[in-house]
Structure formats: C-alpha cells, structure tokens
Queue: 2 jobs
Job 1
Amino acid sequence: MTPLLSVRGLVRRYGALVAVDHVEFTVLPGEVHAVIGPNGAGKSSFLALLAGEARPDAGEIEFAGTNITRLPAFARARLGIARAFQITAVIPDFPVLQNAVLAVLASVGRGFGMGRAAMHDPVLLDGARRLLARVGLAAQESRLAGDLAHGAQRQLELAMALAGRPRLLLLDEPIAGTGPEESRAMVALLQSIRQAPGERPGIVLVEHDLEAVFALADRITVMAEGRVIACDVPDRIRADAAVRAAYLGDDAR
Amino acid sequence: MDPILLLTQALNGLQLGVMLFLMAAGLTLVFGIMGLINLAHGSLYMAGAYAMAAVFAWSGSFLAGLAAAVAAAALLGVAIEMAALRLLYRRDHLDQVLATFGLILFFNELARIIWGPAAIFVTVPAALSHTVEILPGAPYPAYRLVVIAAGVAVAAGLYLLIARTRLGMLIRAGASNRTMVSALGVDIGRLYTAVFALGAGLAALAGAMAGPILSVEPGMGEPVLILTLVVIVVGGIGSIRGAFAAALLIGFVDTIGRAFLPALLRDLLAPSAANAVGPALASMLIYLTMAVVLAIRPQGLFAARTG
C-alpha cells in the first residue's frame, strides 16, 4: 500500500540540540501509528514539523503524493491534515457550539462571505452540531469551552479537528492527564473515528499512556534523543530490549 | 459652574473620545491579535489627514476626501504590513518599538518632502459650517456633532463586525490562539493583513475627520498616538469594548480637566500657585487616571481573555 504520509531524513535543530534527528516515518491510510518515548525524545517537535508549525533543517515530508515540506500549517490543514495539541487548544471564552462553528467555518468558508453572520448560518450550525454529537458533547453546546472538564475539552478539540474530514490526524497526548473514566471514553472515541465508514483517517498518536497506545496502535515508533530507535507492531515493541532501555530511569511512566 | 459651558465641554470630550476610539480600535486589535506594538499607527492617522486634505482640495467633495483617506491608508497599511511589520511579529517588543519608531520618522519626513513643513488648514465642508443650537443659548458646531455621530456609528458597526460576523469570529479566535486557528486551516497571515488594513482605515478616518478641527502637519500623529496608547492600556489590551469605554473616559477626563481644573484650583489655592499648577495638573490628569485604573485593575477595564 502507498503510504499516506512518508517522512525521509527529517532533522530539526534548536541551537546545539538536535530535537529531531534523521527520522524516517510512514503512515498508511487508516493506520494508527503511535509515537512513544521518554520526555524530551523529540515527539512534540516531530509532530510540530508534520503540522507545519516548525520548518525542518533537512529532510522531506510527503503527504498523499504531494511534497509538503515547505507548506505552512494552514495549507497543510486544507490538504487534510488535522491537529490536536498537547495543551488543549479550544477558545475558552467561546461557547462549545461556537468553537465547533469556528472549526466548520475554517474548513469550508474561505475568502468570500466573511461579512456574513457566523452563528445564524444553518450550514455551519448543522455541521457543528453533527461534530458535537459525534464526540458526545451535544448536551453541553451552550457552556463556555473554558468551563468544561479537561476530558471534555479534549473531546471538543478532537471534534474540531474532524471538521474538515481530515485524511490524517496528528494527536499530541490526547489521553495523558485525563482521569480513568475520561481516558476510556477517549480510547473508545478514537476507535470509533478510525473505524468510521468512508473516512478511516490515518492517525499519528503521540501518547504517554502506554495502555491506550497498545490498545489503539497498528504500529509503534519509539523515539529517544530525537532518533527513532524502534518501529514495529505493538507485540514486538513490547518485547524489544532497546525500548526497555530507553524507558529505564523513566519508570514513572 | 456654567451648565452651558459644561455641556459644550462634555460634547468636546465626547468628540475627542470617539476620535480616540477610531485610533484605539485598530491599535488594540493589532496588539491583541498579532502581539505587535505599532507606533506608526499615528502615521496612518497623518496619512489619512493628508489624503483627505489633498483630495478635498482637488475635488471639492468632503465625502470623496474621506473615502480617499480611508482607502489610501488601508492600502498603505497593507504595504507597511507586508514590507515591514511581517518581519517583526516574532521579534520582541523592543525591536518592534525601534522599527516602528523608525517608520514614524520616515513618514514624517516623507510628508515634509511632499507637502512641506507648514501646516495645511482644511476647511469645514460648507454644508456643516454652521452651528446648531443644542440648548437655547448653547450653539455647537454642526461639524463636530457629525464627527460624534460618525464615530458612534463606526463603533457600533465595528462591534457588530467583531461580535457577529465570520470575519469577527476568526479575529477573536486568532487573538485567543493563533497556532490552533492556523491548524484549522485559516491563513493567519492574510487575516493579519486584513485586520491591519481595517485598523489603518479607521485611523485614517480619525485623521481625516480631525483635519478641519486641528491642523494637518508632519508629526500630527504623535500626540494622538500617545493618548491612544493610554486608551488601550486603560481599556485592556485587545478589547474593543475596553477601547470604547476607555476612549470616552480619556476624552472626557482630558477635555473637562483642561477646561475646569485651572478654575477649580483658583478657588482653592492662591492665584499665582493655581495658575502655575492648574494647566500642568490638567495635562497630567489622563496619566493619573491611567495610574488609578491600573492600580485597581492591572489588566485594564475590559481585559480580553486569552488562553
């Protein structure tokens, strides 16, 4: 199968630090490819390079046959790469529904009609309500996003990422930091997203919660000090000695 | 205190307030959304005034002058944003202050080269050159009333634009979290340019309307820029509502203070002391107001919530 995303020789330096060091990486259509590793391994920097928030010092990124290495973040989003952040990114002083409308607006309405009302447009509102229903937030649409529980904010963020029917989802620790109940809900939600008929987006999942990673991932890449030290199916990663070594001294995880 | 004088001065304060709001709206949006301190905002005000003076003199139509001022300054704003300010968004505020201060010097000199150092006087349009008796025995220039009305109308329109429209929603979202808004597929660079053009157009409108009240000359943007900076700090940086409330507050305090404080002090102090202290204290009054507001609410009257 042709990869949806393929990354070759990706390098990003911050001064003397090589945050991402010659990383090779692919995502197949419909695949969940998890990225794990100790803190400071370069996972978030890698995700930022994929999203276009930072530029690589070397290497190529190809998405669905297009070289996107030099494209800015918004252009990648329009090609179908959606993103959820490590620090939950919703607009805290917008109501939940308005956050979802914002996402639908960003994905459909470009350039024209910017003077039209935002919150009275049936197309935007219907699209937004469908997204909220999908993540189970329909009943909370009029609450301020900033007042939601942490897990619900992450669900909202995921709903917003889905607005443009992305072909690739970049998720930065959607589960870490949520309670056990919220964590189970998020795993179930991610399962439903990857199995949604007709969509089946590829997912890059950066996550510390290894239980969730092993439940969701088709393949796992392990990073340490900016480099890929292993990339394989979950069972083989579990048994890999180098992976265990990388986590030594980080056993709190 | 003479009630008619008080009413007249209150209207003067209101008129200064709406002018300051037109200036502050653009500056606070640019600072709140892009994190950019643009000292050259006063140059856009000056550009509006000169464009107005030139087109009004050439065409004889005040409205054509206004339209030309807004359009010219919006274009100039886009050019400045794309050529210079775009390079400054990621720099720290001191770099921004230095670079935009350089722009002030550049534009003041440019105005001097094109129009000369002398002030240009713009006449009030003939249709508005009369006075209106707002109360029996209290005439007030019709032109200033129109300025007040125009300022309030623009403020209302701007409020609707920001609060209700798609563009406004993107502006507010971009002010809160630009990385996330980019990730949703919004071209933040184009949004910034649009916001900057909007702010430039409003500053030019203020400058163009000020033309017949003040004189049009190189450097005319700086005194109003300083008042505007006070307004956006008092109002809460990034907040349109805050800019409106603070602009009216500063407009009133400055006008009423200058009109009545010296007389008030003459009742309290010896005449020589009052004459010395009065005008000085009156011109300090807005900074005292700012200090008091910041002591009570360090984030300003209406802090824009970001997070």
Note: The beta strands of chain A are 5-14, 17-27, 32-36, 58-63, 66-67, 81-84, 168-172, 202-206, 219-224, 227-232.
Job 2
Amino acid sequence: MKLTNLLTSAAVALGLAAGAAMADTTKVGFVYVGPVGDGGWTYEHDQGRKAVEAEFGDQVETVYVENVAEGPDAERVMTQMALEGADLIFTTSFGYMDPTINVAKKFPNVKFEHATGYKRADNVSTYSARFYEGRAVQGTIAGHMTESNIVGYIGSYPIPEVIRGINSAYLHAKKVNPDVQFKIVWAFTWFDPAKEADAAKVLIEQGADVILQHTDSTAPQAAAQAAGNVITFGQASDMSEYAPKPRVSSIIDNWAPYYVARTKAVIDGTWESVDTWDGIGAGMVGIGEISDAVPAEVKEAALAIKDAQANGTYHAFTGPINKQDGSAWLAEGETADDGTLAGMNFYVEGIEGDIPQ
Amino acid sequence: MIRLEKRPQPSRAWSMATPLVAVIATMIVGGLLFAALGKPPVEAIRTIFWEPLFGEFAFYYRPQLLVKGAPLVLIAIGLSLGFRAGIWNIGAEGQYIMGAIFGAGAGLAFYPSESFLIFPFMVIAGAFGGWIWAMIPAVLKTRFGTNEILVSLMLVYVAEQFLASVSLGLLKNPEGFGFPGSRNLQSWDAAHNAELIAGTGMHWGVVAALIAVIFAYVLLNRHMTGYHIRLTGEAPRAAKFAGVNPTRLVLFCLGTSGALAGLAGLFEVSGPSGQISIDFNVGYGFTAIIVAFLGRLHPVGILLAGGLMALTYIGGDIAQSNLQLPAAAIQVFQGMLLFFLLAFDLLTNFRIAIGKPEVA
C-alpha cells in the first residue's frame, strides 16, 4: 500500500514537472484522413511530422489522429487538439476545409494549416503542391516508353487537382509521341487496393503498357508486375519496392520542409496566414529516381523537363493549348494562371471521354 | 467435462446482463491488447470511457456524444423493428445517404430563400428519400421473393455512386471553384439544423432520436402492429394463424427503418456535417446494426447502446491523440464489443454444465 502511494505521488510530481516543462514546448497536431501506414498520402504527411520532431526535438510535441472521417468527426478531433493545447494544427485533406474554418473561428490563438483547400482566415493558411509539374515529367517518360501508344490513367475523383494531372501528363506525352492515347478509369477512391488493382487490370487488358495513377496504394504496381511488360510510377511516396520495373519513377510529396518552416514560424512568433503552392523548385514535389528500365536519352529528356520547371524557365501549361471541345485556351507562349489551374474542370484537346458528373 | 445445456427457457437475467458482461470483457481483453502495444492499459481504458464524460474537457465532449449518438440511435430504432420480425435491413447506410441527398436537394432548390418552410420541407424530403430507397428491397421481396439482406446491402453501393454523382454535378456548389461538394447548409439559416440551445449539442436530430425511442416503445408494447412484429419474430407460424399479413409487415418495417435512416441523413447533412460531399457517409448505417443488437433490440437499450458506441468513438479519438494509440487498435476494440456480445449471448439460451450429461 505504502509503495503504491509512493509511486502515485512520484508520478504526480513527475506529471507536474512535465506539465511545467510543457509550457515552453510548441504543440503541433496533425489530422490524417488515412492510416499512417497507407504507403502514400498520409504516410508522407506523417514523414513531415517526424521531420518536425527531428528538427526541433524537445522544443515541440507532436500529436496525430489517423483515419479521421471528413465532416463532424474531423471538427471534433481538431477541437480536441486545440483544447489540449495545440499551437499549430495541420489538417491534411481537402474535405477538412469547412471543419477547419469552423474550429479556427472558435480558437483565434491557434494556427491552422489546411492542405489543398481554398478557404483562408487570419489563423488559417492553405498549402498545396504543384503535382502537375511532376506529371509533366511522367508524361514525357510515358510518351517515350509506350509501344502500344496507349497510356492508362487511374483517376481518383474528378476534381481539379486530378484533372490537372491528367492534362499535364497528356500534353507532355503527346509532345514526344503524337500518336499517344490516354485511357482514363475513375476509381472514386483515394485508397482502395482492390479497386485500384481492378482498374489497372482493365487498363492493361485494353492495351495500356504504361499506367499512371492518382490513387495511393501499390496495388496497380503489383498488377503491372504480374502482367509483365507494363511500367508504372509511384504516387505520393516513392514506392521503390517496385523499382526498377514496373515502377520507373515517382512523384513524392515532400511536406517536411514546409512543416518545419511553419512550425519554426510559430515558435518564433512570425506565423502569418498565407497561401502556398510550391512545386519541384521549392522541393515540395519530389521526382523519385528514374530507374535503369528507362533508356538514357529518355531519362535525360525527363530530367530536362524537371530542371526547367524547377528553375522557373518552363511552365507545364504553356500555349498553344486548346480545350477538349476545340476552343482556344492558351495562345502561343501564354502560360496558365493559377486561378484557372486551381479550378481546372476541363480536358485539353486530344483527350477522349467526358469528365464524370 | 464442460458442456452446454439448452435452457428450457431463455434466461431473462442473462439477456439483461450480457451487454454489461460484454463491455467488461471488452475492457479486459482490450486492455491486454493495448498493453501488448506498449500503451498503459488502465490509462487507455480510462481515456476512452472516462475522459469524454468527466475529464477536463467534458463540457465539450458531452454535447458531442449527442451529436455522434443521435444518428446511431435514430437508425438503430428503425432497424430493430424489422430485426425483431426477422426482416433484415442491412442497407441503412444507403437510406441514410439518400435521405441526405433528397433533403439537401429539396432545400437547395430554393436557395437562397429564407422562408421558414424550407427546413420542414427538407425533413419530409429526407424521410421520403430514405423510405423510397428502402421500398426497393421491400417491394422486390414481397413481389418476387428476393432476399432483402442482399438487395438492401447492394443498394448502399448504388447510393454511394449517387452521392459521388450529385457532389460532382447536380448539387455542386456553384461558388466552389470546381471542387466537389454542395453549398454548406450551416451558412444558410433557413436550412441549417443548428443547435437548439448553443453549446448543448442538442439539434433536431437528437430530438427526433428521443421521439423515435418513445414511439418505438409504445408501438412495441401497446400497439397491434408492434404485437404483430414481436409475434412474427418469436413464432412465425403462430403469427400466420393470428392473421398477420407478412407483406404489410415487410413494407412497414423496411419503410419505417428507411424513413428513420433518411431522417438521420438529413439532420446530419443540414447540421453537424453541413454539406453533401463524396465522403459524406461515415458508416452510421452499419454501426447502427451493432447498436441495435447491443441494445437487445429494445428501444431503451438502443438509447444506452448508442451512447456507449458514441463514447468509444469519441474516447477512441482522444486516446489516439493523447496516447498515440493506432486507429486500428480502437477499431479492434469496438469490434470486440459486438464479438463478446454475441459470444455471451449464448448463455441466454444455454447454460454451462459441468459433469456428465444426465440420463434422460
């Protein structure tokens, strides 16, 4: 009995000491839409969280909740983090937009960072990555590599983000291979290995020998490997376990530099509401190593596109580009403005099929 | 030798006690699971069950229990009527979705009118949406003898496709920059299912859930239809002789559960959720099946079970954040609850006997 008492009081004392020390630490919360082990979207956000911990050590405390449904559940989890003393909260899914704004109103002293949305407030920033820059690199490789001239594309949801990626990949594949054709399958999910595998198999049966995916699992990679002569690209994370073939390259979401910078801004007291949309140049979009399955000259062409975008000399959407219906969009030499890109809801000329409504 | 012996009559005591025993067993085995993950078991169980009710921030979590529990109770009450009669509506999730689509659509058709009639009209449309979706398996069953379990379940996936379609097309917010999802009803007073008293979590859906509990109780205990439902479930042959019309009963049970699920969807979309989006549904329709059984298909039991389920959700999220318990462990924990309930249910109809079977 005595021992228990002693232990209890020791624990209380420790707890108090820890509590006092906590006052100086900055608490950073992360709300994830998937499991941290999804190998894609959420996994990369969690890598960003770990980078924050590694960078600041005892100065920060990070917490996360995974598998949070969009809507009221997300709102509750954010409120809970704010109540528990979080100073900065990253909400990492588009569907968290309105909940983030709601909670931010109730906690004016807590900073919020919402990924991929468009609603901001004094204490709400938004951030996203120019993944379409990576798609331009993929399109270049796809156009060179396809022998059947059919490129399969697994779309998640027909939202601007995904449509932008399809357009960018198509434009750059077409540039190096005028006969290329895109076949697009909509999976209506971000992460569902079974559905993604089915989509990949359908595309391969239809003759596709290159598969691009905007879904997060490695199931399409496995399907391509089983089929044999099909190449794929890692999505969100490197998926290097399928290298050198079928996975020949990848787009890697690299949130770490941004998360570290924003956490530092909160620690320093310099945080301001901003809208960030960074690409290859700033390091937010990483291009995974192009494997030896790709011939040297193709690799060179792909890296040239990558570098030109990184140093700002080339924009993935540079005219002349027509819309799918043949109407003019960008004139010769004109580049797309961010507003149009952000809300992109049309295919460019040459892509067959309709965007589902 | 340990044997199971059939009881001459189901034990009333065990029937009442099994939910409690199941909860305790879940706590013990769940605690072992958490300990195996290297987390403090007592602290984890305390966080899940105690923190939302009496913790430091209970003032926020208690109202959230109502928000989370109301749709579960509302749907489970409807399901329990059919389950008692052996009519298995597994597709409440789909009816929930359709209720939300019909309700939100009916409201948005009048945007931006501020008429006070809009919300009542949405409520009716929401109930209708759920009802009509449940009528599909009902009519197919009564007309062609199809299996309502399969049809209602498959219609969930059809409803999900409808949801994606209207989020991207028909109901898409014209001011949403091309992103999917409807206007947010929270920012439109005429359609907003706001808290009736600020900070209490009490919205019309909670009121509807409580009314449903009372109605179900009266129906089952004082009304002819309720008697028919119970009779059909307990003694189908006797029900036939007593002149119960099975067609009417199927239509009534599926229709009512559909309408209640539709209402739950409407109150959710116009209140806590605020908008139709591709991922609007979060599994209330399926969880409600657990709630219905956990509550012994009894209205008051369902009310308590809905609260308990809501508690594990909210407490589970707190445990994730504070103790870094993985979400999968919380889901296993919730799954255990149903597992143990079904396992201990055995004791209602059987008893454990030690020794040799008596010679009959």
Note: The mean pLDDT of chain A is 90.
